Predict the structure.
Amino acid sequence: MLTLTLAQLNPTLGDIEGNVAAMRRAARQARDAGAQLVIFPELSLTGYFPGDLLAEPAFLQQVAAGIEALHQASRELPQLTWVVGAPVPRVGPGKPLHNQLLVLRNGEVLLRYAKQLLPTYGIFDDKRHFEPGPDAAPVLRVGDARVGFLICEDGWNDDGQAYAVNPFACMRDAAPDLVVSINASPSDLGQRQRRHAVVAAAAQRHGLPLVYVNQVGGHDELVYDGASFCAEPQRGVCFEARRFAEDICTLGFDRGRFCAADGGALPPVAQAMTAPAFHRAQIVLGLQDYARRCGFRQAVVGASGGIDSAVTLALAAEALGPENVLAITMPSRHSSAGSVDDSATLCANLGVKLLTHPIQATVDQHAAQFEASTGAPLQGLALENLQARIRGTVLMAHSNQFGQLLLTTGNKSEIAVGYCTLYGDTNGGLGLIGDLYKTEVFALARHLNEAADRELIPRAIIDKPPSAELAPGQQDSDSLPPYPVLDEVLKLMIEGERLSPEEHVQASAMVAALQLQPEGAALIARIRRMVWRNEYKRRQAPPLIRLRAQAFGSGRRMPIAAVHPD
């Protein structure tokens, strides 16, 4: 029996010393569990993806020192075989680096394999710095098993649709007993199921058991969910590591089947999360790592009394601890008493401190000075936006003064159509719910209450009609279609074929029904124009934690100055 450890780690981009130390700890844990083989994720030395750090000579020197440190670490555990990922210099025409898998034992490199398939779609840009590796199907004997090796995308082209090369088919011809794939697969809604389906189908087609080791953790907008797994030709996915957490798992592999390290049965694979539970887990981990890696211990949020700020505050309190979150309510003459009271109730439920900073006097002063300077009174949209920008200034002052991370509270529906104010409610260092449509924000609020088994977010906040409260009696529906309609149109326009089958059917049915009505077709055209027209706002917005494949920012790249299709 081959005993192997899946080292699902949370590396920090660029922290070579810290990542080596984490790998050392995991390797010692693997050794203590009796493992013969320890497997780390793709680019485990640097974290994935280091971006243009790979163009910095000083960084590449650190990488070289890190590889040498791994050699030394493997000498300290001479019976253990390590599978690690690192950028490695290459010679010849093309890009200067390979994305490489190294197999180490007792200070020696037993095998090198360079990633063949380099994705350049969606959020991926591997070809910016890496040259594809040559056709290869590397196999190495470890213990009594012949082990083959792949890197992430190499295992995703088994249908032959995306690339001319199919490393999985080459691996089948090499006939290993087991395939090890090291990965850095970002998480989005439905990605776990896609991984399972693609890898299990390939394992079945080629008769190859496979170990899939993924990294975990938040890196800027991206969150990696871990969920490393094993798949067999007959049983499919038969083991899965923890989701959204580091996990060091030691298993056995005997005669083509995976088992517990002692030869016993594997624990059952967990059921899929509901969408709100997934959103919550991904956002909480994303915020924790973003704050920690950027040096923030505390966060500040503008508390409007609405659903968006309420959900943002609840998620921040869970991620950072309520004692490390500050809420600020900033009433003006258009703020309802209910909104101020709802903010107080919410913060009391969460255990979050709430400050009150009225803004009306500042608004009046700015408006008076504007009229004195221009001879024209400030009114309409300009006056509404002034209020939002003063609130943004107050929040940024707190962020600067006390070193708190300002969390912006915009949702995907509003960001899509530009229903937000630049340098106002778009201020901030990170957006938690910017990849959630408004209807999904409400669903997440209900989930948070159900999970807490109490009214964490006051019912009054969930039930009230959404309003920016920047004008008398203002409601979002004055400017926007109802959110259940708007969201379905936006999903089909922005997410397209990346929607789940259920979502696609629902969105398509809504859009088809609207197109049968003259006013409905006009509404769809209006929504599309709003999306195209507000790209400039999205370009200036803070990073958003990515939940879907087509998140604004890294997942959807559109020009600003362009003629767009109707």
Summary: The first strand starts at residue 2 and ends at 8. The first helix runs from residue 16 to 32. The chain has a mean pLDDT of 94. The chain is about 40% helix and 20% strand.
